[in-house]
């Protein structure tokens, strides 16, 4: 979904929906800001269709507004689109800021839904959501998955560092675990004794056989760290096994990220705007894919550079 920045006729009523994973809360207000309906609804097609019908029974001229334009909101937005209903979008941050200016109870789903509806009533700068093209939808799914994997990799690296620190702080201090080589090293060698026993030359050969760049320097770094610690700490054997497990998990995540990057680039190049986007300074395939995913694939919908900049900052 993306913002279509066409002018919106003033409706009879406004339906604000606070989006949740399993349930949404909808509040409908009139031109005076009076509540005509307030309902918690299951995120289910039958329940949502009933809600749409009940809102349209009040007035058939409605502007719907949501605080999320994907994820849990997808089914509702899809149903509204099928029924020809206009849907405006307020960012969660905009709703949070506006909510502080409203009197009444603290944060609740009902209050947020009212704020969404009322903001849609008083503001004239909100764009309408329209379905993105199929490639844009695919790119949203792919780039979202990639972001999740990057976060997972960071968490795993932090766990790996913490585990290595317990048995071999000198090595933990010297390795850059954001690089492939040190991670590969830890799948084979985790303790000072094992590294000293193997020696720099054999470790270098082991790393080269696994296509690690800078194998000689990495092997020397590992041996120097091992020479600085001759004490075997309690629980070293089990901790070393955990280091191996965590290092392999990091490598598996890295492999999946590489595979996703290839899928993202291939799908991005299938989009009709890919060549134009790539011609912009600093726009590679991945950033271009994220751009298409965010805009829904229809750049003309923004109308002006200022509108586009506002969307990007939202």
Question: What does this protein look like?
Answer:
The chain has 314 residues and is of the alpha/beta class. The chain contains 14 helices and 7 strands. The strands form 2 sheets. A 5-stranded mixed beta sheet has the order 4-3-2-5-6. It has a two-stranded antiparallel sheet with strand order 1-7. α2 links the parallel β5 and β6. The two termini are 14 Å apart.
Q: What's the layout of helices and strands?
A:
Blueprint: E1 2-4, E2 13-18, E3 23-30, E4 35-42, H1 45-58, E5 62-66, H2 74-82, E6 87-89, H3 92-99, H4 109-122, E7 128-130, H5 134-167, H6 169-174, H7 180-188, H8 192-198, H9 200-209, H10 215-227, H11 236-269, H12 274-278, H13 285-295, H14 305-313
Parallel strand pairs: 2-5, 5-6
Antiparallel strand pairs: 1-7, 2-3, 3-4
> Which segments are poorly predicted (pLDDT under 50) over 5 or more consecutive residues?
2-7, 310-314
Compute the gyration radius: what is it?
27 Å
Order of helices and strands: EEEEHEHEHHEHHHHHHHHHH
Output mean pLDDT.
Answer: 88
Q: In whole angstroms, how far apart are the ends? A: 14 Å
Largest sheet: 5 strands, mixed
Share of helical residues = 55-70%
Find the structural class using helix and strand composition.
alpha/beta
Overall geometric form: elongated
Percent of residues in beta strands: 5-15%
Record the strand order, biggest sheet.
4-3-2-5-6
Number of strands: 7
Supply the number of helical segments: 14
Task: Write a concise keyword list for the protein shown above.
disordered C terminus, alpha/beta, 7 strands, disordered N terminus, elongated, two-stranded antiparallel ribbon, 314 residues, 14 helices
């Amino acid at each position: 979904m993306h913002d279509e920045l066409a002018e919106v006729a003033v409706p009879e009523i406004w339906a604000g929906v606070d989006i949740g994973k399993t349930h949404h809360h909808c509040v409908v207000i009139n031109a005076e800001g009076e509540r005509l309906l307030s309902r918690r609804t299951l995120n289910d097609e039958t329940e949502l269709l009933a809600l749409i019908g009940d809102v349209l029974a009040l007035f058939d001229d409605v502007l719907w507004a949501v605080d999320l334009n994907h994820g849990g909101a997808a089914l509702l937005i899809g149903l509204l689109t099928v029924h020809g209903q206009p849907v405006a979008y307020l960012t969660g941050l905009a709703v949070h800021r506006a909510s502080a200016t409203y009197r009444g109870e603290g944060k609740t789903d009902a209050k947020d839904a009212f704020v969404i509806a009322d903001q849609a009533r008083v503001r004239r700068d909100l764009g309408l959501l329209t379905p993105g093209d199929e490639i844009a939808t695919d790119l949203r799914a792919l780039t979202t998955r990639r972001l999740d994997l990057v976060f997972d990799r960071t968490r795993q690296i932090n766990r790996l560092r913490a585990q290595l620190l317990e048995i071999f702080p000198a090595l933990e201090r010297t390795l850059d675990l954001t690089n492939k080589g040190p991670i590969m090293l830890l799948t084979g060698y985790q303790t000072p004794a094992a590294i000293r026993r193997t020696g720099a030359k054999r470790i270098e050969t082991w790393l080269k056989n696994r296509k690690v760049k800078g194998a000689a320097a990495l092997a020397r770094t590992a041996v120097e760290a091992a020479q600085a610690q001759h004490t075997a700490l309690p629980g070293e054997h089990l901790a070393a096994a955990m280091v191996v497990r965590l290092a392999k998990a990091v490598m598996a995540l890295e492999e999946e990220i590489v595979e996703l990057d290839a899928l993202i680039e291939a799908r991005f190049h299938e989009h009709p705007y890919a060549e134009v986007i790539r011609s912009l300074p600093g726009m590679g395939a991945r950033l271009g894919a994220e751009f298409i995913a965010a805009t829904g694939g229809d750049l003309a919908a923004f109308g002006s550079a200022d509108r586009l900049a506002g969307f990007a900052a939202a």
